[in-house]
Amino acid sequence: MTQTTDPRAVLERELGARLPALDVLSDDQCADLLSLLETTPRRDRAKARQELAEKNAARPRPVRALVGAVLLGRRS
Predict the structure, then answer these.
(1) How far apart are CA 69 and CA 37, in angstroms?
(2) Does the residue 25 lie in any domain?
(3) Counting CB atoms within 10 angstroms of each CB, which of 2, 9, 45, 60 has the fewest?
(4) 52, 72 contact by CB (below 8 A)
(5) Does the CA dihedral 73-6-64-32 come out positive or negative?
């Protein structure tokens, strides 16, 4: 089995979804988001849920899904 090192493909796999907002990101930006996803402790994500929900409501729908998936590890 071949292990992929493409940051976009790895990010999509980690998010468990193909999100349209990823199309506008560069490979470097995908790598940065992947790094954030891998290093954010679960307790920090739990604390951020309410604040994120309030701030995320003003964002366009595809961006809300991406932000929720990256920061909370799931689609919002």
Answers:
(1) 9
(2) yes
(3) 2
(4) yes
(5) positive
pLDDT at 56: 79
Instruction: Note whether residue 12 is domain-resident.
Output: yes
What pLDDT, on the 0 to 100 scale, is given for residue 4? Answer: 60
pTM of the model as a whole? 0.52
What value does the CA radius of gyration of the chain take, rounded to a whole number of Å?
A: 12
Domain count, the chain: 1
Domain boundaries, position 45 = 7-72
Please indicate, yes or no, if residue 38 is contained in any of the structural domains.
Answer: yes
Cα within 13 Å of Cα(34), Cβ side? 19
* Residue-wise pLDDT tens digits, 3-55: 668 898 988 888 887 888 888 889 998 888 888 877 777 667 667 677 777 77
